[in-house]
Amino acid sequence: MELPRTVRIVEVGPRDGLQNEKQVVATDTKVALIARLRAAGLRAIEATSFVSPKWVPQMGDNAEVLTRVLAAEAERGEAVARDGAAVWYPVLTPNLKGFEAALAAGATEVAVFGAASESFSRKNINCSIAESLERFRPVTEAAQAAGVRVRGYVSCVVGCPYEGAVAPAAVAEVAQTLFEMGCYEVSLGDTIGSGNPDSIRRMLEAVLTRIPADRLAGHYHDTYGMAVANVFASLQMGVAVFDASVGGLGGCPYAAGASGNVATEDVVWLLHGLGIETGVDLDALVDTAAWISAALGREPASRVARAVLAKRRAA
Amino acid sequence: MELPRTVRIVEVGPRDGLQNEKQVVATDTKVALIARLRAAGLRAIEATSFVSPKWVPQMGDNAEVLTRVLAAEAERGEAVARDGAAVWYPVLTPNLKGFEAALAAGATEVAVFGAASESFSRKNINCSIAESLERFRPVTEAAQAAGVRVRGYVSCVVGCPYEGAVAPAAVAEVAQTLFEMGCYEVSLGDTIGSGNPDSIRRMLEAVLTRIPADRLAGHYHDTYGMAVANVFASLQMGVAVFDASVGGLGGCPYAAGASGNVATEDVVWLLHGLGIETGVDLDALVDTAAWISAALGREPASRVARAVLAKRRAA
């Protein structure tokens, strides 16, 4: 089939990435990272998570981050109105308490996070899949009432660290529930990176019987180096939104030293190579990957960033 | 289209990989590496290069490596005859002098190395494409007379470090000449890793008008993280032979610090995930990647090796 002509990237580095880094990054650094990502052309940047700092100390400054990011955005108001390109800063809100805090900080988009694996749901958020979905319902209802849009995540869409292979039908079921609850988009997460173009295709085939392609996003981890191929296979099935993390921030929480979220620059390189527009300036993105990686005391994890930086050094 | 059910991997780490490492690796280490790769199930292992040690000191022990590898193979003769699986140890022979030295050391398969880019040919082997092809002709004739099979390489099949984009028709032309000269297989090399699933597809479409798919191999570099996706796209076009380098040995000679040859373990992971047989034992391959990387004083470059080793440490 024809590939999509434009793709929307949802940058998840500041939340999904930094949440999984051992170091707690300074608020100023987070705000600057988000500003750099915006300047690089990203128009959807997951900013933080409204969870308890007891569980996720990395996101303890959630209200301050979101408030500052939205204030900076408001200052750009005129220019934004001129070019007509809204920028979205979704934040993770696992429950009504988190949603209310996010709303108080000015959130205009939130995200809820379900799982397609029963064991992962119990270990990760301490309740069954069904219970988690019921917990999201008041969030989606309150969000609709407040004019806040909601994105749904499904994790473990191919494999689970506790159960192994996950049935495509289980993914379709959870994705459909989130979609019917009012999520404008459902992001399908290969949380442990065990997917390949074949298992991703089978999973998408099942989900596409319930949700149209233009309401789906691929969220792939590069643990085994398959993420770029999985993005390509998803494009072939009509998916045109992908989550990615600048510099591959975050690593893999299930295997220390392994890769986690696919790097945004690797996805953008693929898409631009395929002639697909993203609105992202790759050079500025690589600069940002180098800058945040240096702040964390390491090299960028992505091949594109390393190659582009190596070529610049050689030039 | 249906993907191939089995794929042949041509392991190029001991030659293409080690040739591009700064360190000169000890002969014993090379011979042990090849033995480990064989034990991991690889049945085509490029062993060395018969070039002048003035130009490529890393391959200065070519005759000793090949002689020892073939002697070890002969010792296994009975077992090999029993399971019927011949193992091939191609060696690079850029000219008749190299071929004669390879033949004297017992070679049963050699390889010649042409380019689809005029500038690359001049800078890399100091002659035009046409001159290089004429230089290969006596090699292929002598090989046929000696019952030695010849593999052809075409480099820069998508991009050239000096010229930029390379026309698919230029690749098809060189590939066809090598094929008609008697090469049983032509390996298409994305030498600078600039290919993506679209440019690889266009290149293959051009080559497939001249050479059947079962006589082609994909030789992709992972400089920008696209190699696994490029293998997938090639499988979709019927290509069923891929070159790869254990542990991603070799790096990129055109951008220090960047990735080079795609890692064998990443390709094998993809293929096994797609249900395609390779005959390779992934765990033994990862062990080998860890072992040779340690010998070079570093971590394996491949995501699969890093993830598998991280999971083993955690277990």
Question: What keyword list fits this structure?
Answer:
about 325 residues, TIM Barrel, 8-stranded parallel β-sheet, globular, homodimer, two-stranded antiparallel sheet, alpha/beta, 13 helices, 10 strands, about 15% strand
Question: What does the model show?
Answer:
Two copies of one chain form a homodimer. Chain A has 315 residues and is α/β, with parallel strands linked by helices. Chain A has a single domain, classed as TIM Barrel (Alpha-Beta Barrel). Helices cover 47% and strands 13% of the residues of chain A. The first copy, chain A, has 13 helices and ten strands. The first copy, chain A, has helices spanning 13-19, 27-39, 62-75, 77-83, 96-104, 118-125, 129-146, 168-180, 197-208, 227-236, 264-273, 282-295, 303-314, and strands at 8-11, 48-49, 91-92, 109-115, 149-155, 159-160, 164-165, 185-190, 216-220, 241-244. In chain A, strands 1-10-9-8-5-4-3-2 form an eight-stranded parallel β-sheet, with helices on both faces. A two-stranded antiparallel ribbon of chain A has the order 6-7. In chain A, α10 (227-236) links the parallel β9 (216-220) and β10 (241-244). In chain A, α8 packs across α9 (197-208) and α9 (197-208) packs across α10 (227-236). The relative contact order of chain A is 0.14. The model of chain A has no long low-confidence stretch (mean pLDDT 94). Chains A and B meet through α9, α10, α11 and α13 of A and α9, α10, α11 and α13 of B.
Percent helix among the residues of chain A?
40-55%
Count of DSSP helices of chain A? 13
Q: Would you identify the CATH H-level superfamily of chain A?
A: Aldolase class I
Strand order of the largest sheet of chain A: 1-10-9-8-5-4-3-2
Shape of chain A: globular
Number of strands of chain A: 10
CATH architecture of chain A: Alpha-Beta Barrel
Give the rounded overall mean pLDDT of chain A: 94
Low-confidence stretches of chain A: none
Order of helices and strands of chain A: EHHEHHEHEHHEEEHEHEHEHHH
